[in-house]
Design brief:
This protein is 72% helix and 0% strand. By secondary structure, the protein is mainly alpha-helical.
Length: 128
């Protein structure tokens, strides 16, 4: 089961890196063109979410891998769950239904990682 959880952690880290990069680097004009930002809206919340996704991608791997405050890894997984709830609400309100199954899968995978790791001894590392 430990190997499966590591695989899920890797998948989640990769899954969140691309949108994190996009949210942190896309110019405001492009966000407006894509409909990801309303006219007159602030880009700050989008940048903040991107930074949180990037930190989550690091946090879902490194603390447990390095065995430095490994409880941060399941906390990162819970953070991904929160992000996915928000993403579901946003995409549902925009009637972007095709992306909803991907969001649900990401939520479920994040929840599996969080639940499993919160029920493991803290000293769990990659070698166990």
């Amino acid at each position: 089961m430990n190997v499966f959880i590591w695989i899920l952690q890797g998948v989640l880290a990769i899954f969140f890196l691309a949108p994190a990069y996009m949210k942190m680097t896309t110019p405001k004009s492009k966000l407006l063109e894509k409909g990801q930002l309303q006219p007159g809206g602030s880009v700050v919340p989008i940048r903040f979410i991107g930074i949180m996704e990037l930190l989550g991608s690091v946090g879902i791997i490194l603390p447990r891998l390095l065995n430095i405050v490994p409880v941060l890894t399941p906390i990162a997984a819970v953070g991904f769950c929160v992000v996915m709830v928000g993403a579901f609400a946003v995409h549902f309100s925009k009637k972007e239904y095709k992306v909803l199954p991907v969001i649900v899968v990401a939520f479920v995978l994040s929840a599996i990682v969080a639940i499993y790791l919160f029920n493991q001894p803290v000293q769990d590392s990659i070698t166990s």
